[in-house]
Amino acid sequence: MTDILKTPALEGFIRMCDDGWLQGWHERNGGNLTYRMTDADVEAARPAFAPEPREWHEMGVTCENLAGEYFITTGSGKYFRNVQIAPEKNIGIVEINEAGSAWRIVWGLEDGAVPTSEFPTHFMNHSVRKRVTDGANRVIYHCHATNVIALTYVLPLTDRDFTRPLWQSATECPVVFPEGVGVVPWMVPGGVEIAKATSVLMETYQAAVWSQHGLFASGPDFDTTFGLAHTIEKSAEIYVKVLSTGQPILQTIEDDSLRAIARDFGVQLNEAFLD
Ligand code: 13P
Ligand code: ZN
Predict the structure, then answer these.
(1) 2, 19, 11, 55: which is closest to 35 by C-alpha?
(2) pLDDT at residue 53 in the model
């Protein structure tokens, strides 16, 4: 029988959990990751599925375009730090029912574990990103990115007030997220309200900042999604360091320079965030 842990989907998922842990973005059980599997991923993993799947759990949200899909998900209360050493206890695969309203565990999440408490949020955002990217996006990643969180204490909580300093703090940022980032005000985690607020933003953005909480990022694969979170957090770190000097900012990347980057790299910048 094939070893499910050697399949590309599981290998990539586990590596990304470890990468996030090594960055320091996943204290305790902080953060969560979900991946919408391809048909090939599902067929490669199926030999390891439980002969008797577990019971269905209604999510309280329905997304018809995710009916019948399979997701790899981190477990609620589980530590990213432990994923690599005991994947079957800390992550799992869930199948979505034909209504697109409930999940059941088909592999992993052993000993009574359940998908992340943010699963309804991930699920709603997978639905949006699947639709707006014509099925290309498959990964949703939530991390407690330190410097992004720090900025939510000192910047006005608007998409524009976050996007501009992030674009200006690292030259390649406008290329990586030309549409900018969205900002969600402080909300209780794990609820339907934060799920809805985030999914409105993810119609436009690849990533959203959760105030006083973290970052929520999407992408087509593990590399691109991790790279997006890493790029946003690095830029936030630079801006935090700049602010921490207490010195006036003498120069930054001006809007004409942002436009020049966009022109040469062939991306369309969100004009609403330029002067
Ligand atoms: P979970 O352990 O349920 O994934 O929650 C962690 C978290 O970061 C909530 O926002
Ligand atoms: Zn969190």
Answers:
(1) 11
(2) 82
> How far apart are the CA of 71 and the centre of ligand 2, in A?
19
- Walk along the chain (275 residues) in steps of 10 and give the mean pLDDT of each run: 90 98 98 98 97 93 97 98 98 98 98 97 98 98 98 98 98 98 97 94 98 98 98 98 98 98 98 96
Give the distance (Å) from ligand 2 centre to CA of residue 99. Answer: 28
The answer to whether the CB of 189 is under 6 A from ligand 1 is: yes
Give the number of residues written for the chain. Answer: 275
Point out the ligand nearest to the CA of residue 117: 1
137 ligand 1 Cβ < 6 A: no
Q: Please, what sign has the CA dihedral across residues 25, 167, 208, 89?
A: negative
Cα of 206 vs centre of ligand 1, distance in Å, is 20
Nearest one of 39, 27, 271, 15 to 159, comparing CA atoms: 271
Task: Give catalytic residue positions.
Answer: 118
175 within 8 A of 238, measured Cβ to Cβ: no
Q: Assess whether the C-beta atom of 32 lies below 6 angstroms from ligand 1.
A: yes
In the chain, the DSSP E strands lie at: 32-36, 57-58, 70-74, 91-96, 102-108, 139-143, 182-184, 207-210, 214-219
Q: What is the distance between the alpha carbons of residues 273 and 67, in angstroms, rounded to a whole number?
A: 36
> What does the pLDDT read at residue 1?
53
User: Per DSSP, what are the bridge partners of residue 74?
Assistant: 91
